[in-house]
Amino acid sequence: MFDAKQFIENSLKEIKLDVGDNRVISACSGGVDSTVATYLVHKAVGEKMIAVFIDDGLRRDGEPEFVVRILKDFGVNTRFVDARAEFFEVFKGKTDAEEKRKAFREKFYSTLGRVAKEEKIQFITQGTIKADVIETVKGIKSQHNVLGQIGIDSQIYGYKILEPLRELFKPEVRMVARELGLPKEISERMPFPGPALSLRVLGEVTAERAAIVRKATQIVEEETLGLGTFQNFAVLHNDKATGIKNDKRVYGNIITVRIVNSIDAVTAQASQIPFEKLMKISKRITSEIPSVVRCLYDITDKPPSTIEFE
Amino acid sequence: MFDAKQFIENSLKEIKLDVGDNRVISACSGGVDSTVATYLVHKAVGEKMIAVFIDDGLRRDGEPEFVVRILKDFGVNTRFVDARAEFFEVFKGKTDAEEKRKAFREKFYSTLGRVAKEEKIQFITQGTIKADVIETVKGIKSQHNVLGQIGIDSQIYGYKILEPLRELFKPEVRMVARELGLPKEISERMPFPGPALSLRVLGEVTAERAAIVRKATQIVEEETLGLGTFQNFAVLHNDKATGIKNDKRVYGNIITVRIVNSIDAVTAQASQIPFEKLMKISKRITSEIPSVVRCLYDITDKPPSTIEFE
Q1: DSSP A247-310
Q2: Within a 10 A sphere around the Cβ of A250, how many other Cβ atoms?
Q3: Out of A15, A120, B33, B135, which could bridge B127 as a Cys pair, Cβ 3.0 to 4.6 Å?
Q4: CA-to-CA distance for A244 and A67, rounded, in angstroms?
């Protein structure tokens, strides 16, 4: 049985030992993993740590403001980096899923590396958890935060990596969050991938297309609040389909809604939520987002699907 | 109230009058509309009519054999044209929905025109119904069999067009079929579009991709037999998604399942069929078709979607 209290005790000691007299930067996306990692390191080394929130233009509606507010509530030194234009620049012309992940990863690390250099910092904290490591090693996907596992030397980016949660699965991370006394909006927070909405824009990721999936995501999250499902999100297809708007034929966008039940993200089940709820989501998405004419619901478990599309 | 018996009486007289001493060809796809039209003209002018079944490589599993057998059972002179290679040729490099419809229409008419010429025939019978006319005129889609409505002179293809069902809606066509004593497998047959599986292969239509959606369609039809829904089918996306097969990451195909309730195809509702059924369809499609990793269910009514994707 996992003992969260014991884990925290050991972890704080190890982090102090690892960091020594160095300074640490923690990339915090607002997800449960990176927020717990940030808070642990903050607790361990205090003023030696700076949290960085990188706004890559791919966050959910209201998320940048939410994360910065939470970090301030924790009393953490926080730096906000607006890198939206830079991220959309590197996605230009890229449509392949692995190329997009790679582009995100490189931009993420070069941005973090730049900040670390400016701040004269040697250590980066990340919220890598065990499922990320397993899937990267298995070749199921390349997690952007598991560099060492795939043979990339993080030193080339100019810093060492600290991953205090790498031995934990998601439910254990949540237990640690509760034990640390973090608010429910963090400890019970729905998983959200590192490369964020870029995985949910099939084809080229542009600011306009990210805005469409951001709005659809907001609708899905509003309508599924309290369902208790593991992850609820929207995906914008690159494919288009015919539809009818204002009595005219249009060739418009397709959104898929994905809602899954899972314990640890290693396996997952398509959630059998009530049809009226699905129809309400479909009607809202196709009416509140003018370019969308069609809404689909993902009915595939993991395996054979992954939770995300890319 | 529509009187099928009266309609048939009037129709037979009109057809005889229209055709006169000419000979007629009837393009029969096996759908209820074209089969009823074919049978009506056969009844009206007998030996003056030849039915043509064009195998465009885009028909459902077993359909070419089924249609030819039915026509022979009716005692209709039937000509089978294998045009599969020609059709796939014209789809090469085409990904836009309207371009694909246009390519299909042109190849369909040139093939029919060629046969009509060989047979020295002036009249073509088609199963156009009122919904086709309305949607073409409204610009919702261009039906391949409503040439006159969109200002195309059918004479350029070398023949005149006979459309005995153009004033009827789908339920009336079915009443006529029953009144004519056609077997249930025709009178209650699910609608199937003229351009067939080409509308259900998003992106380029190739023989390989048509085979994938044909297999998925067969699974959907088997699993939804007896549900009493209006139309049940599968669509192959051009987009791909990640999945896991044999413990390895793959970047595979996506299939959408579309099942709708409708009276006349002018409006339609996404069918709220039991989740266990949807999950069974998803599991069969992703296991019986190796390249497919993800299965989606369309939850959009018409409007704002159309029934088909293209």
Answers
A1: TEEEEEEEEEEEEEE-SSSSSBEE----HHHHHHHHHHHHHHSTTEEEEEEE---BTTB-SS--
A2: 18
A3: B33
A4: 39
Pairing of strands B160-162, B24-27: unpaired
DSSP-derived 3-state class of residue A45: helix
**A204 vs A189: CA distance, rounded Å:** 28
Partner-chain residue, chosen from A238, A270, A297, that has the shortest CB–CB distance to B299 = A297
pLDDT tens profile B2-50: 999 999 999 999 999 999 999 999 989 998 999 999 999 999 999 999 9
CB atoms within 10 A of CB B97: 21
Q: What is the predicted ipTM?
A: 0.88
Residue keyed to tokens 């000979």: B23
Contact at 8 Å (CB) between B185 and B99? Answer: no
Q: What whole-number distance in Å separates Cα of residue A192 and Cα of residue A176? A: 18
Nearest CA in chain B to A257: B296
Which of B170, B127, B130, B142 has its CA nearest to residue B26? B127
Given an 8 Å threshold on Cβ–Cβ distance, is B304 in contact with A296? no
Report the alpha-carbon distance of residue A273 to residue A255 in Å, rounded: 18
Contact (CB<8Å) B247/A138 = yes
**Is the Cβ pair A203, B242 closer than 8 Å?**
no
Strands B123-125 and B269-270: unpaired
Residues 6+ apart with CB under 8 A from B97: A240, A241, A242, A251, B199, B309, B310
For residue range A57-106, list pLDDT tens digits in order.
999 999 999 999 999 999 999 999 999 999 999 999 999 988 999 999 89
- Per-residue pLDDT tens digits for A112-137: 888 888 988 888 898 989 877 776 66
